[in-house]
Design goal:
- The longest helix has 27 residues.
- Strands 1-4-3-2-5-6 form a 6-stranded parallel β-sheet, with helices on both faces. A 6-stranded antiparallel β-sheet has the order 9-14-11-12-13-10.
- It has 2 domains: about 160 residues, HUPs (Rossmann fold), CATH 3.40.50.620; about 130 residues, Elongation Factor Tu (Ef-tu), domain 3.
- It has about 325 residues and is an alpha/beta fold.
- The two termini are about 15 Å apart.
């Protein structure tokens, strides 16, 4: 997949594609249905598929204090869309220029002049342009006038309710990793590069691979049974802590992964960490000794959880575990 950061990097060779536009936060089953629909249209037109998304999230731009917690950072979104076979991902900076652009100018500049769109797939609730005045009807009319097709995106439902980022966020907030995985099509996954930490886990007998989240607010915290995959192909089952580390007065969210029965060095490696089950919420302990005792219990619980998940996969009651569900 080609990642295009900003419209200034678009070239003439990017003309003539099938396009969908959206935030795609979490790349859940609903998003995946849209991507499949886009891929079908791209094949029909013998054209590449192109997903257009925004950074920052529009709600973060307009009201950062009220914006919902993101399900996925850009790196997670890129990985998920690449796995779905998208040909191109165009990341537009959501800024004042884009906000103040009229709907007609948005279509004329981006879809017609810069992308030369042949097919556009969007939902009925798609809004664009200044004051969110542009809608599906206007886009369809402009498509008819300028020679590109416009199609409604498929609505994907599960248990009689539309799959949405809001539903995924609610499941994660409740610590219901199984429900989140059903909506995402796989376990909730966080990716990052392993950095050096304070080595406290090593001192306590539980060395960890530390993945900083760079100020990213997380939709769920706690201690989890996990499976991680390294960029060199290793599979690492283990236990992980995700959150603010209240016992040691942490100030930024951090994902700390202890890989079972592993003695290697992961510094600098990229990991994809699938959170399979939340074992407990994040709590503050009065001493490191109390924390260590709890870590023993957490490790035992995680091992039992991983055995259960592996057994469910072997007997066919759980889907095969894939490196990343979002």
């Amino acid at each position: 997949m080609e990642l295009i950061r900003g419209r200034h990097n678009l070239r003439a060779r990017h003309h003539g594609c099938a396009v969908t536009i959206g935030n795609f936060d979490g790349v859940h089953l609903g998003h995946q249905a849209v991507i499949r629909q886009l891929a079908e249209r791209a094949r029909e037109w013998h054209a590449p598929s192109c997903v257009v998304t925004f950074e920052p999230h529009p709600r973060e731009y307009f009201a950062p204090a009220q914006a919902p917690v993101r399900l996925s950072r850009l790196r997670d979104k890129v990985a998920a869309l690449r796995r779905l076979g998208v040909d191109r991902l165009l990341v537009l900076r959501f800024d004042r220029r884009l906000v103040e652009q009229s709907p007609a100018d948005f279509v004329a500049e981006l879809l017609i002049r810069e992308l030369g769109a042949r097919q556009v797939v969007v939902g009925d609730d798609f809004r664009f342009g200044r004051g969110r005045a542009g809608d599906f009807s206007l886009l369809a009319q402009m498509g008819a006038d300028h020679g590109f097709a416009v199609e409604r995106a498929t609505t994907f439902s599960l248990d009689g309710e539309r799959v949405s980022s809001t539903r995924v966020r609610a499941a994660l907030a409740a610590g219901d990793m199984a429900s989140a995985a059903r909506l995402l099509g796989g376990p909730y996954t966080i990716r990052g590069r392993v950095v050096h930490g304070e080595k406290l886990g090593r001192d306590l007998g539980y060395p960890t691979a530390n993945l900083p989240l760079r100020g990213h607010q997380v939709p769920v915290t706690g201690v989890f049974a996990v499976v991680a995959w390294s960029d060199d192909g290793r599979t690492l089952p283990g236990v992980a802590s995700l959150g603010w580390r209240p016992t040691v007065a942490g100030t930024v969210p951090l994902l700390e992964v202890h890989a079972f029965d592993f003695a290697g060095d992961l510094y600098g490696a990229h990991l994809a960490v699938a959170l399979l089950e939340r074992l407990r919420p994040e709590v503050r302990f009065d001493s490191l000794a109390e924390l260590t005792e709890q870590m023993h219990r957490d490790a035992a619980a995680a091992r039992a959880c991983l055995q259960h998940h592996e057994g469910a996969r072997r007997d066919g009651t759980a889907p095969p575990l894939q490196p990343g569900g979002n």
